[in-house]
Amino acid sequence: MAGRIVKSKTVIKKINRPFLLVSSVIAILSLSVMSYYLFRSGAHRKSTAVEKTAFRIIEPGELPQNQDLRDSLAIVYGFRFSYPGCEVTDALLLEAEVHNAEVIRRLETAHGKNWLKRFQHELDSLSR
Description:
It is a single chain. The chain is mostly helical. It folds into 2 domains: 1-48; 54-127, no CATH class. The chain is 77% helix and 6% strand.
């Protein structure tokens, strides 16, 4: 009887070895693929985080002279300027006013009550 038990254990060991090898390979590949996508998406998120989550302040009319400077400083504060074009209508002005008031309110919760004054002050000091 002891011989039979040893034989059955040997058969089980022989069956389990390929199964363990295949399952180990699958586990390693799965972890590799998951870690690749986690790290890749993290790096991708860093470069486009502002674009995905940024608030936009609408500035109808002509482009300002210091547009590049304003846009780069706005990114630091977590928003972007949107320049819809030169044709300014009453509807566009009203939409911009309502939209900008909400964006400014949300940015106040993130940066404090006087963030717009600080932004303007920094912009003025960088423009000189």
